[in-house]
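anyone else get weird line breaks when pasting these?? whatever heres mine. first is seq + tokens for prot A
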Amino acid sequence: MQTNIEFFIRKKAKDLSMQNVNIYHLGKWGSNMKNIKSIILCLLCCLFIFSGLIHNGTAAAATSNVPVLHPVDIDNDGLPEYRIEANGWVESVRPVVTTKKYEHATYTYYQYKKGGRGFDLTFVKLKNGSFLYFARHTNAGKTEPVQVRITALDPAIEQTASLVTGNEKSWKKFMGASDSYASSVYVDGSKLFYRIGKAETYKSLGYTVYKEMPQASPATKHTQNDSGHVFLLTMNAGAGTESATWGMLSNQPLIRWENQLAETKAAQLEFEIDKKLREDGAYYTNENTYRPYEPGSFYRNPANVDGLRSLAFLPEAENGVWFQNIASHLAYTAVQTQTNSGYWETYPRSEWLYQSYGIGYRYMDNRRNIDNATFLLHYYWVMPDPVIKKALDKWDTYLMDYAGRYGIKVGPDGLFVPDYVGAEGSKQSHTSLNHLVATMNYLYEVYLYNGDESKKQLGNRLLAGIQATRAQWVMPDQNLYYALYPDLTPHPYSDYAYLTRDDLVFSQYLLSRVNGHEDPDLQLLIDSKNAWLETRQ
């Protein structure tokens, strides 16, 4: 019996690379049979546990695929109104999760990465209970799908609507639902209201430029089950392509269809055909003078004019929650994309600016920045948030420094600021009237809001610059020149049809509040432009 026990222990010791076990001492120590049995039992237990750990680890690795499932609780009652699920390679990946909290929205980012593949889910929970989702699938290898299912736990569909083009963008409405959708669809149920965007395929060209590939974008499949409606999106991505989609979920109407003004404005602003919405902001149709460029491409435009236009439709009971949701997302993506210096970059290179002034990629366009800052200012008035105020303060600091560093003295007291600022080594650009007037208007708006005299003084200097060059802006046919060069000679381009005129009209309104009266030199420019417009009737 002793020999058998020693053989057994020796064999297990060898199996566990424990050849240094001293059998003599074990045998001597094990003269008591009870001790030997205890040792054997202990060793057997250790081996059993060890082998179990190995087995369980292998089994866990083999069965680690778990559905990516996110319940969406709109009204915070502990019960979900929606479910978002992703299937495919992402099921075997543990995501990196980060969160950013703001006054009116909380952003949660889920990043899945594996073997050259990436899948990003961005969830935006709005303070009003609405929910935005953004999904993006990239893949450096062969084309492979990730399937995304959005389930609305509402059995009824009372109306659907999709955007159509004609002379103007408008809505085509249907009673009930279809089995598939080739475009985004708005759904009104009995208790839930939502937008399901289609999975759009893109080719990334760099510098925030994406070329849409409509022929590679599969339709959205729709089915109904006992609990509600399921929308299935197939997000294909391979070498050189990616897939992106976004949607909006709520228990309140997104658009109040009975309000014709809200319906029309939502069609104008909808990010479907001529512009796109992503997790990092608004993308507009690319200019053919930009690089990179391909037909059908879009670039991220920091101006956020659609955010500004949304603000007039914020009351939800009259217009729906769509406008507030979009404005909030654009406001917070502006916070996220602001540079440390305080401005917002245009990434693609303008060949015109590059050839004229040596301005390359990632430059400052002051009209786009002023439009964005004006949007943030107005957003802050109605939806205050300290992070929005901080972003505005950063921009204001940059603006004052930019005017002092790059400003051109005009007349005894006037000042022009150049339209664009590039990297070190680029030349000073022209000053266009619409950029200059928009900057002046922003400064006066800030002054009227908080009484900052430095903003009023700089606004007055820009006004003095326009007054000193009043005659130089007027073309022989009474139209206005687009811009003046640094030496104050006119740029050959003619002005926009209405943009600058409308800016000047708003200037008169602001000046009547700042100085108590309108400005006659600005009125001369307005009258000249109107006279030219009458000849175009």
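and prot B, same format (seq, then tokens)
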Amino acid sequence: MLKSKFNFELVFIFLLCLHTALILSIDLFPFADVPSHLAEGVIFKHYGSNTNLFNKYYTIHYLFYPNTFHLLFFSLPIFPNVEIANKVLHLLTAVGLPILVFFILKELRANKWFAIVSFILIYGYNLTFGFTGNAVANDIVLLILLLWLRTINRNTNHAIYMVIISILLIIVYFLHAMVALFSMLMMASFLFYKYRNSSIKLILNSLSSLPLISLILYWWFFLQKQAETSTQYNKQESTFAFLKSYYQYSFLQTYTKRVSFLIADNFQLFDGKLGKTVAFTLSCVIFAPFIIFIYDYFKKNITITHFRFLNESAIYLILFFAVNCICFFLLPAKIPGQEPLYERFSTMLLLSIILMGSKLPILYRVSFSYVIITLAFIHLILWAQYFFQFNQENKYFEQILPQDNTKILSYMNYDPAYRGRMVYDHFQNYFIVKKQGISTSKVIDYRFGMVRRKNSGGLPHQGHMYYRDSPRELLLKSDYILVRGIIPPRDQRLLDSMNTFVNVRNIYNWHLLKRK
């Protein structure tokens, strides 16, 4: 055990409490896709109500669909509204990660101080991109890993644990389909190794994945094709044709970008090189044990017998790491109608390295605990400032929204970034969230989604103005236009020539245009 004058339990609980207070203090999350998920939740929860016109413009596909967990969670009657439910879900996801890492380390009899290291991944790539289901699913994967380790480390009822794992695999499916596929690959590697000498046991234990496999096949070959008919995706090429071309011509060109896993979880703290430098510095603590071990091995005659990695549990850590490497380094950057893909595994890849590093003998060093604690608190302070500034800049945002929720709102966004990340892409969805209004939304045109457009409603397709998409359709079919930033000359000339909108409200960088 690492010796330090700091009490681990005190530091760990104190950090959990501080992160809890921080998350609960946030009004608007600067996470790109969160407004879309909130809008989905409000439409699902209040669909058919006489307080809105949702059933005129949207349809819902959720039965047996993946990525629908948040809809059910947000609609629970214990939450007064979707935004509070979302805050609770983010809180559970964020603080749940280091707690799960702690219990995994305890099961491994590894160094518990590395649970402190995991705090620097709390606001990871998926959570801060707004891929909330993906982030929650990652926590469930850690829980599955913990249960699997318990099946081999204790005299427990193996069958009960496998039933629980089977149920958790189903939950992962409803959280995120891609993570469900990852979980299936992870469990397959575990089972093949453990039962490599017993085909009967391998087959019997593999039955735990059968419900998940059935759900994935049913979704992919039956449900998904029905939902795609109302989206823009059906104009694109098939997934298999795209992948063939991608791996033939584009795959190798992405490898210079795949080192991004070193910075993917914290680079958005600051724009540009400063953000990447801060993120890389925070990530260095994850790799430091391996560097120190290599140094000790060659300079101080530390032998392999000091390597506490050599037991059965360690094999599963290596397999966990290998599956993460396969997904991060071999998956494509995108498929038609869905991106990003491989980047979503950066957090889990770093977590697998943390778990392996926790078994290295260098962690007897007291100085290493000081570094861990220092970086954990620096990370907390930086993210607190990040959240605080964002909420200060947008504290009056709700006042820009129209009051009439029977009208259609569209979005012309010319200033999408906060500290270099496109977090303002979907802020028009807050008209749905705050007012139960009708808004254009990218979420109804994504390939994989639960809320679809109702063709008879005639909602225009939401484009990206900063990519020079034309706002003509939005201007023709909308009652209100939410504008962020300065309208460029091209679009201003179109707006002036149509002479159908007037500016009725301005708050900082936000503007509201109303049809005359």
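btw re prot B: The chain has a mean pLDDT of 90. Residues 290 and 357 are 7 Å apart (CA to CA).
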